[in-house]
Amino acid sequence: MTHPNMDQSVDRTPVPTVAFTIRPIGLVHAAPRKRARISKYFIPKGRATLELFHPYLPGLQGLYSGLEIWVITYHAPSGRIPTDACQGGDGGPGVFATSSVERPNPIEFLRARVVELDSERGLIDVEGLDIEDGAPILDIRPAMSPHHRLAKPGE
C-alpha cells in the first residue's frame, strides 16, 4: 500500500555514496559445510568460533555461556542494490521483509548463543551461526533490551 500523497513514479537517481572506515574487531572461524539453497526463513544451527583481536579482549568482560548475542559481520556477497524481485517488485516481500542474502550493504546481523568463552585468548564458541569462514567481525552485542542489566542467570 502506498501513501496517497506519494509520487508513484520510480526515482532512478543514483544513490549517493559516503566513504568511511570500519575496523574489524576479529574474525569468524567456521567449519566448512556443504552449500545449499537457504530458504528465507532458515534457522541456522551452525557452530563457529569468534576470535577477537587483542585490543578488544577487555570488551568480553560480562559475557557468559548461554547468553544470546548479535554478531555483526562484513558480508562480501552483499553491497549492491537488490534486483527488482528482491525489492518486492514481483508482488512478493521486499528485501527488508526477508533474510535474503542479497542486501544493499555488506553487513550482516546474526544471532548466536555463547557456548564457551575464553576471555584470555579472545575466543567465543557460539552456536546458531550460519556464516562464511574468515568473515570479519564488526561488533558483538547482547541480544536484549539496552535497559536490561547484563548479568549471569542467578545473580
Q: Which CATH architecture of one domain would you pick?
A: Beta Barrel
Mean residue pLDDT:
77
Q: Quick one: biggest sheet? A: 6 strands, antiparallel, barrel
Task: Quickly give the structural class.
Answer: mainly beta
Helix content: under 10%
Radius of gyration: 19 Å
Q: Kindly report the CATH topology of one domain.
A: Elongation Factor Tu (Ef-tu), domain 3
* Count of DSSP-assigned helices: 0
N to C succession of SSEs: EEEEEE
> What is the general shape?
globular
Regions with little confidence, pLDDT below 50 for 5+ residues = 1-8, 38-43
Total strand segments: 6
Widest β-sheet, arrangement of strands: 1-2-5-4-3-6
**CATH class identity of one domain:** Mainly Beta
CATH superfamily of one domain: YaeB-like
Span between termini: 48 Å
SS strand fraction: 25-35%
